[in-house]
């Protein structure tokens, strides 16, 4: 039959066979434990994924519900897949009634051709003025923006449309315009505040500037009064018919010849002093005025002298000022605004060197290719690197509270830009700070 040995009955199996059978059962049980552990782990992972998915759904639902803009998601054929609460409220319809309906059914027929073209092209939509068609037949104008959806292979899969009611946009524009108006008013108030603060600091210097020509005028007028009395006495003697010899003696005693020679220069000096007072008052009015200026021709060098004198004469400890300027720089521009920029720059330099030994301020100016380039440099401590990006910001100051507004450089920077120029900062040679103002020679050319 064959050479195979007959199988042994179960009870007659060898110990080796029984050991192999037990090991097989042990391996099976262990394998079942591993499979069961994998099943438990898979179940836990599945529950965690379901939880995250639910959280994501809840998050998206809350986001969509919180949106004020209407939202529509459609497929490539134009069937609605998803909408938000803002759209259902605008249309007066339930979300379930809108799903799977054609996108065109949500809009006024007059917009259908444009909507079809956008779907056919599958490109981004920007500010389309479409009209939603509510259940009661009312039309609601919306400004629609949209972007195409793509599937995993990059193929066009539909559109995501977001629309904002035009009435809401108009309200937003009005609010923005009001905010802009408030900002402009605030900027003007800042400008006025800085002018008044600067004017307060300059009062002593302006008073000193006025005192000199006024004192000169007073002195000349008293001299003219004496001369008038002498001439009146001499003319009275002539009218009385006094003898020639007596008139000669009176003429000599009243020093009539000297009086006559001195009257012309006295009148010229008085007029010059009065004109100086007038110029100072005009500069002061121009400096403090909020009225719109018109460009005018003037000598910038004289304006630099005036601004510097106003600031320096208010200081108890006066720094050395070196003016490296040409005889004249004729420019056409807004004199009052340039005056304020100069005052602010000189005042800033004075504050920087205050209390330092050998305090020095150096002012240079000249013309370069149709531009005036003016630099005010000091030998103060300079501006730390961490503050250099902030110096033209409003209210930034390193001075103690109550010692500065932090508006001088900010106002000057903005004025320079309005004049068609610029204001920049650099480190001065040998330490300190240097501020360079650049403005056109004739701002009518900008």
Automatic annotation (TrEMBL):
<keyword id="KW-0418">Kinase</keyword>
<keyword id="KW-0808">Transferase</keyword>
<feature type="domain" description="PAS">
    <location>
        <begin position="56"/>
        <end position="128"/>
    </location>
</feature>
<feature type="coiled-coil region">
    <location>
        <begin position="169"/>
        <end position="196"/>
    </location>
</feature>
<dbReference type="GO" id="GO:0000155">
    <property type="term" value="F:phosphorelay sensor kinase activity"/>
</dbReference>
<dbReference type="InterPro" id="IPR004358">
    <property type="entry name" value="Sig_transdc_His_kin-like_C"/>
</dbReference>
<keyword id="KW-0597">Phosphoprotein</keyword>
<dbReference type="InterPro" id="IPR003594">
    <property type="entry name" value="HATPase_dom"/>
</dbReference>
<dbReference type="InterPro" id="IPR000014">
    <property type="entry name" value="PAS"/>
</dbReference>
<dbReference type="InterPro" id="IPR003661">
    <property type="entry name" value="HisK_dim/P_dom"/>
</dbReference>
<keyword id="KW-0175">Coiled coil</keyword>
<dbReference type="InterPro" id="IPR013656">
    <property type="entry name" value="PAS_4"/>
</dbReference>
<dbReference type="InterPro" id="IPR036890">
    <property type="entry name" value="HATPase_C_sf"/>
</dbReference>
<dbReference type="Pfam" id="PF02518">
    <property type="entry name" value="HATPase_c"/>
</dbReference>
<dbReference type="InterPro" id="IPR005467">
    <property type="entry name" value="His_kinase_dom"/>
</dbReference>
<protein>
    <recommendedName>
        <fullName>histidine kinase</fullName>
        <ecNumber>2.7.13.3</ecNumber>
    </recommendedName>
</protein>
<dbReference type="Pfam" id="PF08448">
    <property type="entry name" value="PAS_4"/>
</dbReference>
<feature type="domain" description="Histidine kinase">
    <location>
        <begin position="205"/>
        <end position="443"/>
    </location>
</feature>
<dbReference type="InterPro" id="IPR035965">
    <property type="entry name" value="PAS-like_dom_sf"/>
</dbReference>
<dbReference type="InterPro" id="IPR036097">
    <property type="entry name" value="HisK_dim/P_sf"/>
</dbReference>
């Amino acid at each position: 039959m064959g050479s195979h040995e007959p199988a042994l009955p179960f009870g007659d199996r060898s110990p080796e066979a029984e050991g192999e059978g037990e090991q097989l059962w042990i391996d099976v049980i262990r394998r079942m434990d591993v499979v069961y552990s994998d099943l438990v782990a898979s179940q836990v992972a599945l529950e965690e994924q379901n939880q995250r998915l639910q959280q994501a759904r809840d998050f998206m639902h809350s986001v969509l519900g919180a949106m004020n803009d209407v939202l529509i998601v459609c497929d490539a054929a134009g069937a609605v897949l998803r909408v938000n609460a803002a759209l259902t409220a605008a249309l007066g319809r339930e979300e379930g009634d809108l799903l799977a309906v054609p996108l065109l059914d949500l809009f006024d027929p007059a917009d259908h051709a444009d909507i079809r073209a956008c779907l056919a092209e599958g490109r981004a939509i920007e500010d389309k003025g479409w009209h939603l068609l509510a259940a009661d037949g009312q039309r609601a104008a919306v400004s629609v923006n949209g972007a195409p959806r793509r599937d995993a292979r990059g193929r066009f899969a539909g559109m995501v449309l977001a629309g904002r009611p035009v009435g809401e946009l108009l309200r937003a524009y009005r609010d923005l315009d009001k905010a802009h108006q408030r900002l402009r008013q605030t900027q003007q108030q800042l400008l006025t505040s800085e002018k008044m603060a600067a004017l307060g600091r300059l009062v002593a210097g302006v008073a000193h500037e006025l005192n000199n020509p006024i004192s000169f005028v007073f002195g000349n007028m008293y001299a003219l009064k004496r001369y008038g009395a002498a001439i009146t006495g001499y003319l009275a003697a002539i009218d009385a018919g006094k003898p020639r010899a007596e008139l000669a003696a009176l003429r000599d005693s009243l020093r009539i010849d000297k009086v006559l020679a001195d009257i012309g220069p006295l009148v010229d000096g008085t007029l010059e002093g009065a004109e100086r007072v007038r110029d100072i008052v005009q500069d002061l009015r121009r400096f403090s005025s909020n009225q719109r200026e018109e460009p005018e021709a003037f000598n910038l060098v004289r304006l630099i002298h005036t601004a510097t004198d106003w600031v320096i004469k208010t200081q108890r400890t006066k720094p050395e000022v070196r003016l490296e300027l040409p005889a004249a720089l004729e420019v056409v521009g807004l004199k009052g605004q340039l005056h304020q920029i100069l005052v602010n720059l000189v005042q800033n330099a004075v504050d920087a060197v205050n209390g330092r030994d050998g305090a020095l301020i150096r002012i240079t100016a000249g013309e370069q290719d149709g531009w005036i380039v003016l630099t005010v440099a000091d030998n103060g401590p300079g501006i730390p690197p961490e503050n250099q990006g902030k110096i033209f910001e409003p209210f930034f100051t390193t001075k103690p509270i109550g010692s500065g507004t932090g508006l001088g450089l900010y106002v000057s920077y903005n004025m320079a830009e309005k004049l068609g120029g610029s204001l920049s900062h650099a480190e001065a040679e040998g330490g300190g700070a240097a501020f360079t103002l650049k403005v056109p020679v004739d701002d009518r050319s900008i």
